[in-house]
């Protein structure tokens, strides 16, 4: 087994807890330190998970750190990731990877020049449910995917997040914040996107926070909050993607893919697990039996029940891929193409024109049962 790579984290907000608490599930990585522009936040997380709290500059210089996880706000993803590469370390970013193609290509150039790796969330597509759909598609049981629908709609984060401001600013909104889960899963299931078209609107120009501690405070909305898009894939499939934070309730499934031979109902790609249903031709729709995929096993309380949560799987796969000299699945190319798709959707919504993609990518390697088990640390 390869030696574990030391991992540091920049950004100690809400999402950092998932990385710190779930990383022990995997071999190949060892969380060592964390940093934040707010040292109190860094010290609190360090104490909670028995890590070192460091300044950002000190973390970048730390010889025990091989990979830095960028958990900052999207607006500074590029700046922070560039600093990590300049420091000679691999970087793994939260989604969205960057906010423009130009930023992504510059990071790619820097990484290639230094022989470093870039990875990016989301890694939920590695979950047992989505890899079961991938296996179904790759087996040919659906035939070629010809069309489909995706719906991710709700009423925004101001009802539960303590500081929801950035969700409603450029760089966020439902396409760039939640869209990465859906777009990335579509790419790994179907392949790259050729062009997009979209309509976008902003029904409410300000929102009222109802969550504590800022309940009653109004915040401005400076990015579209309802976007209806069409994605044409390189293989000819056409997918509808509807995203909104202006919907109180709806009855649409998260994702449905229609093939020449059948239909598959895909669970929410924001999560690793869920029920996969399938029909072949005129046969009744049936729930596919659960397969023995480790990233589909419920391991965490969610609401009134248990769910599968294996965030950090993409980071672990990248660390092990570095040691093994193979491509990692949550790759820069995949993340950049997803950014291309999402920013293209927003540009189409603004211009009313079709937008062709500037990038492409290969589908990441499937993560079957054997490969998924190989990422997990051996139980003592």
Automatic annotation (TrEMBL):
Under the heading SUPFAM superfamilies, the entry gives: Glyceraldehyde-3-phosphate dehydrogenase-like, C-terminal domain, NAD(P)-binding Rossmann-fold domains
Q: Which UniProt keywords apply?
A: Oxidoreductase
What InterPro entries does the annotation carry?
Answer: Gfo/Idh/MocA-like_OxRdtase_N (IPR000683), Gfo/Idh/MocA_oxidrdct_glycsds (IPR050463), GFO_IDH_MocA-like_dom (IPR055170), NAD(P)-bd_dom_sf (IPR036291)
Gfo/Idh/MocA-like oxidoreductase N-terminal domain mapped to chain residues: 6-118
Q: Which residues form the GFO/IDH/MocA-like oxidoreductase domain?
A: 130-264
Q: Does the keyword Transferase apply?
A: no
What residues form the membrane-spanning segments? none
Report which superkingdom the organism of origin falls in. Answer: Bacteria
Give yes or no: UniProt keyword Oxidoreductase.
yes
**What is this protein's name?**
Gfo/Idh/MocA family oxidoreductase
Q: Which organism is it from?
A: Mesorhizobium humile
């Amino acid at each position: 087994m390869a030696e574990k790579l030391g991992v540091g984290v920049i950004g100690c907000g809400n999402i950092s807890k998932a990385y710190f608490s779930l990383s022990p599930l995997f071999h190949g990585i060892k969380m060592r330190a964390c940093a934040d522009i707010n040292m109190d936040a860094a010290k609190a997380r360090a104490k909670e998970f028995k890590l070192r709290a460091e300044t950002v500059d000190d973390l970048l210089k730390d010889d025990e750190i091989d990979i830095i996880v960028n958990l900052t706000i999207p607006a500074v993803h590029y700046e922070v990731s560039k600093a990590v590469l300049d420091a000679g370390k691999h970087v793994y970013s939260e989604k969205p990877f960057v906010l423009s193609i130009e930023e992504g290509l510059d990071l790619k150039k820097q990484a290639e020049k230094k022989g470093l790796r870039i990875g990016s969330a989301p890694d939920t597509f590695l979950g047992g449910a989505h890899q079961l759909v991938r296996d179904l598609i790759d087996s040919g049981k659906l035939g070629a995917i010809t069309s489909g629908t995706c719906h991710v709609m709700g009423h925004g984060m101001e009802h539960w997040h303590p500081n929801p401001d950035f969700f409603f600013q450029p760089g966020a909104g439902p396409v760039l914040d939640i869209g990465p889960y859906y777009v990335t899963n579509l790419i790994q299931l179907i392949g790259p996107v050729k062009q997009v078209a979209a309509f976008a609107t902003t029904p409410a120009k300000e929102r009222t926070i109802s969550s504590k501690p800022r309940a009653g405070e109004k915040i401005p909305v400076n990015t579209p909050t309802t976007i209806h898009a069409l994605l044409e894939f390189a293989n000819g499939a056409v997918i509808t993607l509807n995203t909104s934070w202006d919907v109180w309730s709806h009855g649409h499934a998260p994702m449905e893919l229609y093939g020449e031979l059948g239909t598959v109902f895909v669970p929410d790609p924001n999560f690793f697990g869920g029920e996969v249903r399938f029909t072949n031709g005129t046969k009744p729709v049936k729930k596919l039996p659960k397969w023995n995929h480790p990233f589909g096993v419920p391991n965490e309380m969610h609401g009134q029940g248990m769910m599968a949560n294996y965030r950090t799987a993409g980071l672990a796969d990248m660390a092990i891929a570095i040691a093994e000299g193979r491509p990692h699945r949550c790759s820069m190319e995949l993340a950049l193409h997803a950014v291309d798709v999402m920013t293209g959707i927003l540009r189409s919504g603004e211009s009313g024109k079709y937008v062709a993609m500037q990038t492409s990518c290969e589908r990441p390697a499937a993560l079957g049962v054997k490969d998924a088990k190989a990422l997990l640390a051996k139980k003592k």
